[in-house]
Amino acid sequence: MLIESRPATDPEIATLVAAQQRELRAADGGLDGQATITHDDIRYLVVVDGGRAVACGGIQALGRDTGELKRMYVRPAYRGRGIARQLLTALEELAFQRGHSVVCLETGTYLPAAIGLYTSAGYRPIPVYGEYVDNPYSVCFAKRLPVAA
């Protein structure tokens, strides 16, 4: 498996993000209301296996010191192999390289596997922020990244 950077306009990113959004809508009963959008200012990483993009995630700057984890997704057939954890580690490294000392994220209360991944990786609950404030299913987390020696 290979983890590589891709532009937000990459068609495989669009396919993965669309699949993620469909799965989220099915999981929350269509109540979330988030649009399927890829933002040009998100820096994406893609996990490639056998020439096929099987997972993605991105980092978007929220401020000078803070990056937000966006669109983390692993195709169902590839789950349970540690891909999400490897991708999360790579995304944290990308955030650090971009000058962020904190990474935050939003996920849904209806996604216990995602919450388990994030908390086991050192993310701690924070108050719901930004566009997620009015969503009763949103939960937010943050992690302070280690400082380089």
CATH class of the domain at 2-105: Alpha Beta
Mean pLDDT equals 90
Query: How large a portion of the residues is in β-strands, by DSSP E?
Result: 25-35%
In N-to-C order, the SSE pattern is: EHEEEHEHEE
- Low-pLDDT sequence parts: 31-38
Please state how the strands of the largest beta sheet are arranged side by side.
Answer: 1-2-3-4-5-7-6
- Helix/strand-derived category reads alpha+beta
Overall shape: it is globular
Assign the CATH architecture of the domain at 2-105: 3-Layer(aba) Sandwich
Let me know the CATH homologous superfamily of the domain at 2-105: Gcn5-related N-acetyltransferase (GNAT)
**How helix-rich are the residues, as a percent range?**
25-40%
Instruction: Say what the CATH topology of the domain at 2-105 is.
Output: Aminopeptidase
Largest sheet composition: 7 strands, mixed
User: Using only CA atoms, what is the Rg?
Assistant: 14 Å
**Extended strand count:** 7
Organism: Micromonospora mangrovi
Keywords: Acyltransferase, Transferase
InterPro entries: Acyl_CoA_acyltransferase, Bact_Acetyltransf, GNAT_dom
Protein name: GNAT family N-acetyltransferase
Fill in the keyword field for this structure.
149 residues, alpha+beta, Aminopeptidase, seven-stranded mixed β-sheet, 3 helices, 7 strands
